[in-house]
Amino acid sequence: MDVYALIIAGGVGARFWPRSREHSPKQLLEIIGGGTMIQNTVYRLDPIVPRENILIVTGALQADEVRRQLPQIPAENILVEPTGRNTAPAIGLGAQILRKRVGDAMMVVLPADHLVHDITAFQETLHNAIAVAEESRGFVTIGVTPSRPETGYGYIQFHKDEQDRPYAAHEGYSVVTFAEKPNLETAQRFIESGDFVWNSGMFIWRVSTIYNGIVDHLPELADELEKLEEAIDTPAFPKALERAYSEMRPISIDYGIMEKAQNRYVIPADFGWNDLGSWDEVARLYPKDEKDNAASENTFLRDVSNCHVSTTGKRLAAVIGVEDLIIIDTDDAVLVCRKGRSQEVKEIVDMLRKKGLNEYL
Q1: Per DSSP, what are the bridge partners of residue 266?
Q2: Residue 267, pLDDT score
Q3: Per DSSP, what are the bridge partners of residue 158?
Q4: pLDDT tens digits for 117-149?
Q5: For residue 109, what pLDDT band results from cuts at 50, 70 and 90?
Q6: Is the pLDDT of residue 166 over 70?
């Protein structure tokens, strides 16, 4: 069975302000290593999914930059949402388009803004997930083996006993439940139990499986997707999509499908994954000096410890006598944040939007 991929690239990356903006969100930036986040997401699919089989769902403000960064993706495979409606409508849109174009096929769903260090291990995991999805005709997700009691991720509990492992040859386990982001005490308990993994937001299933799941659990969304079928790949599609999205309610694929469906499987894996959900995550991953600082070249540090300093403009950043800070300098904005609080950057973005300071968004 042919394998297709749907890359979700519609977020604005508010927690990465001031580098992440509406026209150039996190997935379109080069944050760690070479290449932007979305480019690297496409590149690591190369041995498994042909470029012509990759679809990308993005927003109107980012579509031109997505096309510029990924000229190898066919123009008709860049799907532009009229407005963000969370992951279930985006995935439903991709499934409906594949359903019309190719009928049933294997469908891999990936966020555009995740970091993967061990590409070979990731590809091996994806091969296993595809095999489980093909054999089970079920809903398969990839779970990341936790390295710490993280409160910023959702978790998946699985049956770790052999009798509940019907696809052992491919490392597949039956899912018990999906858990929301826990507090620290609960996260520690998850880790100690040994049967929880981080929810990576990566999914593998047949087109028919996810489409039937939408029909069963999100019938209103299924109705709107069905109305789109005739317009797909015709000049009428943009207007039909705008009308359909105006009727769709925002809902995540986890809440809408995965928490309710039967026949769910998870592949636990460890391939150096990070969702780079905040500046704290970036700071954790960057190489440090002897005082635990990570700093751009255009900086001067004196009596500084455990700080992350990043500059993208021409200005010199001089930092003296501080510790435990994240400092992000761009051409028109500077963020100064204590480590451990970078999740709150999203609140700054919300405040800027409420005050009408759109030039900083």
Answers
A1: 141, 173
A2: 95
A3: 175
A4: 999 999 999 999 999 999 999 999 999 999 999
A5: very high
A6: no
- For residue 157, count other CB atoms closer than 10 A to its CB: 18
DSSP summary character for residue 252: -
Q: Evaluate whether 256 touches 216 at the Cβ level (below 8 Å).
A: no
pLDDT in tens, 241-272: 999 999 999 999 999 999 999 999 999 999 99
Residues ≥6 apart with Cβ < 8 Å to 352: 358, 360, 361
What residue type is assigned to position 67 of the chain?
A: R
CA dist 342 and 320 (Å) reads 21
| Share of the chain residues as helix, strand and coil, in percent rounded to the nearest 5 | 40, 25, 35
Return the structure tokens found at 236. Answer: 């009428």
Specify the residue for token string 């929301």.
180
pLDDT of the residue at 345: 96
Pairing of strands 317-320, 299-302: parallel
**Distance (Å, rounded) from C-alpha 325 to C-alpha 339?**
5
- Let me know: does 200 contact 141? Beta carbons within 8 Å: yes
CA dist., res. 101 & res. 94, Å (int): 11
Quote the tokens at residue 220.
Answer: 């209103």
Sign for the CA dihedral angle at 267, 253, 53, 14 comes to negative
Q: Where are the domains of the chain?
A: 3-274, 279-360
Q: Which fold has domain 3-274?
A: Spore Coat Polysaccharide Biosynthesis Protein SpsA; Chain A (3.90.550)
Selection from 86, 23, 21 nearest residue 348 by Cα = 21
